[in-house]
Amino acid sequence: MSDATGSRSSTIEQAAVVDDELVAAFERLIPQLSSSSPPPGRDELAALVDGPDTVLFVARVDGTIVGSLTLAFYRIPTGTKAWIEDVVVDDAARGHGIGRRLNEAALEVARERGAKNVSLTSRPSREAANRLYQRIGFAQRETNLYR
Questions:
Q1: How far apart are CA 146 and CA 128, in angstroms?
Q2: What pTM was estimated for this model as a whole?
Q3: Most Cβ neighbours (<10 Å): which of 61, 63, 74, 107?
């Protein structure tokens, strides 16, 4: 999937290999998502990229990784479901539709793989992200979430 971001070229792709570029991108992106979680190392990224139940999407602008999204699948007795996790777009690339395109790519793969539904959570303080999720069709559920 490619598109123009201003006059710059952007693409969304499924990560297929764990290399120094991917590791460095996560070292830069994860602190923008969470101050309490360390960036994944090479082995953790390999488990995501190679795992049959996860798809790691990356967004590039002019060839540089500027965002990511993880789509996780799980099977229950009533069907296959999917969950979107750890969506992050570099501060410098926000506001150009990258987050939307990452989510749309994930939803397309979820449909292709027969997911019954796709869920996600987002902190209320992430106002722009919550507006995006509602614009692309996610509905807030009335539920008690327990951890």
A1: 25
A2: 0.91
A3: 61
